[in-house]
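Structure tokens please, single chain.
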Amino acid sequence: MFSNKLDRLIWRRHRKLMAVIGGITLLGTVMMTLILLHTLKQISGSDIQIVSGSIHKWQVYRGSYFTAYSWWLIFAFWLGGLEIMHLDLRDHFNEFLFSSGFSRLKVYWAKLRIALGTLLGMSVVIIAIQYLLYWLSKPAGTTFTLAWPGLITSWAMGLAISIGMFSLSWFAALIVGQTGSLIVTISGFTFSLVGLSGIGGNILSGSWLKVSKAALPWVGAGTWLVSAVVLFIWGAALYQHLSLEHNGEYLLFPRLRVPVYIVFVVYVTWLYSYDADGMTMAVAFILAALFGYGWLWRPRLGEKWHQWRESKQAKE
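Here you go.
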């Protein structure tokens, strides 16, 4: 399946967990599809269209009974970025790869290539199964008609968001060395993007920029892809200087502590005080500054847990 030794090593290391991610994604997609089909069966009448006529337009399709690109696939990309990067650090597989004669840059791009290739292949299979399930299980008296314009635009948008989500979790797993802290950090940031997208939409469609509502999703997709490219390239630069002596610390690259702190304080302050008064902004700034300091400069609990785990493994 893979032509070189490095790719085979990485694939053998991650194939089982990637299969688990695929299984969870498939199960979630199938369950969601069956729920929607069951809803359709409760509707009386004939000539019900599962997919509306807007599928023929060059726009992302949004319907009541059919989703062209499952949100479970976005979750799979997000989880895949965490899995392939963080577990190699936690289980010391990085040390094995670094001592095997491969350059760190080759290891980094091989991981990225295998992860994205596997997730893209997984997406094709799951989408095919989802559509086939609709076709075979649609209730009597309903029609299931698809069209390329709506499908292509929905797939393009879904993949852009998926790759963007993958890059966020991938980069977070590269710079954060504690499992619990990593999950809390990336989960909190991911959920905060819901509020950020609303604020960004208001700014872009405001009186100054005047971006149309039809163009907003594509601006978002472009932002996701540009951010992903930046994080992938930045991650490659950092990976070459990954020091295993910082394994178990919150930040694996101590020199990032101050930049991360500044970005965190500015981001949280802006997110929670956007379009608010000065007092709200001051309170948000103080709370963000205090929390960020405690989180970045006093992450003792996670480090103690890592030290205990390492000593236990050494005794065994």
